[in-house]
């Protein structure tokens, strides 16, 4: 009896261009959001996702067929895709929106990813060409919403494993064993493919892109799409009324005894 052919995995890694983690955040003069005229880079959690996809391929060379990065953003987001390609992704997709457009909301992002997956899987010539594993950061550091992965899994009807701190692919059973962060420890779950995984900080330490790989990334293919191509309306459903700086913290003071403390609290209207 012949053994069943090995199923090849194709990984999709969504990445986002965000304000660099080292930048001190300031509110813009209009108080409509933060000042974005600062240094940007790939969202750190997405960087971890790219690294994990590359590590999986290094470990399972015969099983991982391709790694494709995807981003939704303005023209400058192309730099983020180039970074993903330099880190090890094979190709990329850029869903370009106007430079002045607000950052897409999680539901619109999830719907876009669903559209891309369905389109690519419909065009696939066989099971080995279909996208069956999505790895993305658990949240973006600009909005901290952390719901895109869960929404995508719900829209696709796929398995999901959030806040992953360890991934192990079982090639024979076509399953992925995921250790995920929970309060007070870790939880192991076994998921059938296709699967959506969101990455936690402890999953890995991303590598630096070498100069030769940066040069190679310039020759890797990037497919450009428009919102019309994916059939998604990016009009915001939420309105930000006002963004303001937190109140300035004032220094504390010392008291000699409890009676003096109570007196000060009463003077401040707190007791």
From TrEMBL:
Domain of life: Eukaryota
Family the entry assigns: Belongs to the ETF beta-subunit/FixA family.
Subcellular location: Mitochondrion matrix
Organism: Crepidotus variabilis
UniProt KW keywords: Electron transport, Mitochondrion, Transport
Cofactor(s) essential for the protein: AMP; FAD
Cofactor note: Binds 1 AMP per subunit. Binds 1 FAD per dimer.
GO biological process: amino acid catabolic process; fatty acid beta-oxidation using acyl-CoA dehydrogenase
SMART domains associated with the record: ETF
Name recorded for this polypeptide: Probable electron transfer flavoprotein subunit beta
MF (Gene Ontology): electron transfer activity
């Amino acid at each position: 009896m012949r053994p069943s052919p090995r199923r090849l995995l194709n990984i999709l890694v969504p990445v986002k261009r965000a304000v660099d983690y080292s930048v001190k955040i300031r509110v813009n003069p209009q108080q409509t959001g933060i000042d974005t005229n600062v240094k940007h880079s790939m969202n750190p959690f997405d960087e971890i996702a790219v690294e994990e996809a590359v590590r999986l391929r290094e470990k399972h060379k015969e099983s991982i067929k391709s790694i494709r990065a995807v981003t939704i953003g303005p023209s400058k987001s192309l730099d983020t895709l180039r970074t993903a390609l330099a880190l090890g992704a094979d190709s990329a997709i850029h869903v370009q929106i106007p430079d002045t457009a607000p950052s897409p909301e999680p539901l619109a992002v999830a719907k876009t990813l669903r559209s891309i997956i369905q389109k690519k899987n419909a065009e696939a010539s066989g099971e080995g060409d279909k996208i069956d594993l999505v790895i993305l950061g658990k949240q973006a550091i600009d909005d901290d919403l952390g719901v895109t992965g869960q929404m995508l899994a719900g829209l696709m009807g796929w398995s999901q494993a959030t806040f992953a701190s360890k991934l192990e692919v079982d090639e024979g059973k076509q399953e992925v064993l995921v250790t995920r962060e929970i309060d007070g420890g870790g939880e192991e779950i076994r998921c059938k493919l296709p699967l959506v995984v969101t990455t936690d900080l402890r999953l890995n330490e991303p590598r630096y892109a070498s100069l030769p790989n940066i040069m190679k990334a310039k020759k890797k293919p990037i497919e450009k799409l428009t919102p019309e191509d994916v059939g998604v309306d990016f009009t915001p459903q939420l309105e930000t009324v006002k963004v303001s700086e937190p109140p300035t913290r004032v220094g504390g003071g010392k008291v000699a005894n409890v009676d003096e403390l109570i007196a000060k609290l009463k003077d401040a209207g707190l007791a």
